[in-house]
């Protein structure tokens, strides 16, 4: 399985250190990353060496918008009984569980003492938010309930792992009411890097990969013993899942 948008985003990029293109999800300095990512493209049927016009800097925002558009379409199909509100970079205090943070923000704004004491960690705008209304109307009143927050990371690096954990920990800490589903969506090809965010103590419910089956086949073909072990672990523990399951999971939760 792969998402409808996987083959549109995954492709090749020009490597500044070499004339030979490399997969745009790969770490250009890592041979294993490039090998696995190239195999993923092969299984997806992406033409070898076809360089996409998108730059690496464009891919993160492109993934966010693709996930937003896909969930906005698929969630009402999966559960038409609920009013689904799927947004990009919406503030968490626009939702019921975090409405009090808006009050804090008003108090902090223009007050340097409060700003220093309270910090700005509560100013959270998840990449994609999934809200629901408990009425048949799409009116903004009452405030929607935050059903899920989706952190979209094209690739996984140590700083991005910390950013995800920090943001989700703040959401866990500041909520007043039921916790939203907290998930990550990625195109990262290296199992060890996926494991870095998939493992943990509950900050992230699960990681969803946009080319799950191609990743498994690629690691099976060219991955090291440790990479195969890491991937098998996170899949068997339910920590890494196909992106195609995300809408169904949210609709039944």
Brief descriptors of the model:
two-stranded antiparallel sheet, 253 residues, alpha/beta, 8 strands
Describe this structure in words.
With 253 residues, the chain is α/β, with parallel strands linked by helices. The protein has helices at 6-9, 31-44, 56-78, 99-108, 112-118, 158-174, 191-198, 212-222, 225-236, 246-251, and strands at residues 12-13, 22-23, 83-88, 128-133, 145-153, 181-186, 206-209, 240-242. A six-stranded mixed β-sheet has the order 3-4-5-6-7-8, with helices on both faces.
What is the gist of this entry?
The protein is α/β, with parallel strands linked by helices and 253 residues long. It has helices at residues 6-9, 31-44, 56-78, 99-108, 112-118, 158-174, 191-198, 212-222, 225-236, 246-251, and strands at 12-13, 22-23, 83-88, 128-133, 145-153, 181-186, 206-209, 240-242.
Topology readout:
Layout lengths: L5 H4 L2 E2 L8 E2 L7 H14 L11 H23 L4 E6 L10 H10 L3 H7 L9 E6 L11 E9 L4 H17 L6 E6 L4 H8 L7 E4 L2 H11 L2 H12 L3 E3 L3 H6 L2
Unreliable stretches (pLDDT < 50, length at least 5) are none
The whole-number mean of residue pLDDT values reads 88
Radius of gyration: 19 Å
Which structural class should the secondary elements be placed in? alpha/beta
List the helices and strands in order.
HEEHHEHHEEHEHEHHEH
Q: Which overall shape is indicated by the principal axes computed on the Cα atoms?
A: globular
Helix content: 40-55%
State the helix count: 10
Strand count, sense and barrel status of the largest sheet are:
6 strands, mixed
How far is it from the N-terminal to the C-terminal residue, by CA? 22 Å
Number of DSSP E strands: 8
Biggest sheet: strand arrangement: 3-4-5-6-7-8
Strand content: 15-25%
Which oligomerization state do the chains in this entry correspond to? single chain
